[in-house]
Amino acid sequence: MTSIESTVLLPARPSTAGTLDARAVSAWFGDRKVLDRVSLTMPQGQVTALIGPSGCGKSTFLRILNRMHELIPGAALAGEVLLDGTDVYAPERRLTSARRDIGMVFQKPNPFPAMSIYDNVVAGLKLTGIRASRPEKDHLVEECLGKAGLWREVQDRLRQPGGALSGGQQQRLCIARSLAVRPKVLLMDEPCSALDPTSTRRIEQTIRELAETVTIVIVTHNMQQAQRVSDRCAFFLAEQGTPGAIVEHGPTGAMFATPADPRTSDYVNGRFG
Ligand SMILES: Nc1ncnc2c1ncn2[C@@H]1O[C@H](COP(=O)(O)OP(=O)(O)OP(=O)(O)O)[C@@H](O)[C@H]1O
Hints:
- The chain is of the alpha/beta class.
- The chain contains 11 helices and 10 strands.
- The site of adenosine-5'-triphosphate has 11 residues, from helix 2.
């Protein structure tokens, strides 16, 4: 124990939200362009919702923000992504550092099913090269499960497998796992689409609580959810045969009440998509 404690590398810093800035981001799969010069600022400590019909490039944009797009064979991109003014794609910046600062929660909860709840939470530490003593891990597990709104439900069974939890609990476990490396930004790709309404509301509450310390970017098809959880919205659209682009973005209240573009109005009022 003492030898580990002497090499502790776990940062003592609390989570601090960061501002993410996408500038003229374009994306291709092979020779097909799917995003065209998307620029969007996702401000520190706020929830930004990406909305728009299926296939307009929301998930692709999200994957570009934390360098997951480049892992897809044939995928290419142009433009810049800055986190607090620093280029996420700078050659000297390691992929693991980008992923650590910008975490991702997926549509389908994906805990390691046979791994304990405790080990699921700390799993990301090893992958990102962070070492921690046992007491630090204990503290981190409680802190992250607490922030994810799951601590009270699982504190007596931390050694049980993550796969034994309900779907909503598994998703909150995945959120806790993402938080363990203290990201500045959390990307969420339809995090509630596989969940029942009660679990959905619980995750939405968690998102609002997290927004105080982590910047959140969420893709959602649910317009009520976008209104409940987000401070800002960006409406993506890929009109016939053209790549996806942002039609309009701004504070969520205004996007829904007084959208500037008739296409936004049609979409948020359920007239298409
Ligand atoms: N791995 C891939 N290879 C080739 N084309 C892809 C790939 N992933 C996505 N695409 C294409 O890129 C375009 C944008 O897809 P994307 O999944 O980003 O849209 P989306 O707005 O997130 O859709 P949805 O709301 O249905 O999830 C679509 O035309 C899709 O078919």
